[in-house]
Structures are given as structure tokens and as C-alpha cells.
Write a structure and sequence with these properties.
This protein is mostly helical. The protein contains eight helices and no strands.
Length: 176
């Protein structure tokens, strides 16, 4: 019974909003259509940026760059106590959410979901952001061409997030 009520909740809200929109004197259908048109215009303006990002990330992933970075930095990671399997995820995460999700699945398949590496990969993926994607899309949407300090600050924040995810996540995993 409760499932039926929740299943009908969204259609009921949409129906109520539709009636309000049709019969309200303060809100007009023209305002709604103007907002929808503005959203579509913004989507079309963002399309070239999104295509560029998708092609760039696909080329980066297909080139084997994340794996190369993982091999180059693995001796340093072993000294610090970080599994080198996390490196491709750490390096692709600022560029692509879907690419980093694919790498996250790869970490799960290689190390197991309940392993320390799988746990840390989950914490890193959940606590970090796709810096380049978000910067490109948001700044494109509002027509800002110079990001100035945004990108360095976001990348520094990403680095701090990854270090804290490894330290704190590792501590929690070892305690549990």
C-alpha cells in the first residue's frame, strides 16, 4: 500500500503543478516556456564543451596514460603504503566521472570490493570531484573564459581530498 502511494506521488505532484500553472493568474505558461527555451539554449551552448571533454577523456583512457602513470609512480606508492592500483583512478577522476567509475569497477574486480584497496577506491571516488568537467561546464554555462585561480584551487583541493581519503579511509578500514 505504501509503495502504491509513493508510486503515485510524483505523477500527483506533476498533475497539481500543471493545474496550478494553467489556472494561476500570477504564473503563466509563457514564463514556463521561456524558462524551458532558456534551458535548451544553455544545453546547446554546452554541447561543444561536453563533446570536447568526452573525446579527450576517451583518448586519454585509450592511450594507456593512466596505467603508465600507475607504473611510474608505483615504487613511490609502495614506500608510502598506497596500493598502485589506486593511481589510475586518482589521475582519471578529475577528468571523467564515467571513466573513473570504470576504473573503480576494475579495482573491485582485481582486488575485491571488501579489500583495503577497494574500500579506499570507494572513498576516493565518493569524496572527489571531476574538476575539469565541472569547471568547463559551469564556466561555459555562464560565459566565463578565464578560470584564473579556479583550476589550481580545485586541483589542490582534489589532492588534499585524495590524501585525506587514503589516510582517514585507511585508518577506518584498519580499525574495522
Amino acid at each position: 500500500m505504501i509503495q502504491l502511494a509513493f508510486s503515485l506521488l510524483v505523477p500527483a505532484v506533476l498533475l497539481l503543478l500543471s493545474f496550478y500553472l494553467l489556472f494561476s493568474k500570477s504564473v503563466s505558461v509563457d514564463s514556463f516556456l521561456l524558462g524551458a527555451r532558456s534551458g535548451i539554449d544553455t544545453s546547446f551552448r554546452l554541447l561543444p564543451t561536453l563533446v570536447l571533454l568526452m573525446v579527450g577523456v576517451s583518448m586519454l583512457s585509450a592511450s594507456g596514460f593512466p596505467e603508465l602513470i600507475g607504473r611510474l609512480f608505483s615504487p613511490l606508492c609502495q614506500r608510502v603504503g598506497i596500493d598502485a592500483a589506486l593511481l589510475p583512478l586518482i589521475f582519471i577522476r578529475p577528468f571523467s566521472g564515467s571513466g573513473s567509475n570504470a576504473l573503480l569497477l576494475s579495482v573491485y574486480e582485481q582486488n575485491g570490493v571488501d579489500s583495503r584497496t577497494g574500500f579506499l577506491a570507494s572513498v576516493i571516488a565518493g569524496s572527489s570531484e571531476t574538476v575539469f568537467y565541472v569547471t568547463a561546464v559551469y564556466f561555459s554555462a555562464v560565459h566565463i573564459k578565464k578560470t584564473r585561480h579556479t583550476l589550481p584551487a580545485a586541483l589542490l583541493t582534489m589532492a588534499v581530498t585524495v590524501v585525506l581519503a587514503i589516510l582517514v579511509g585507511g585508518w577506518f578500514y584498519d580499525k574495522g
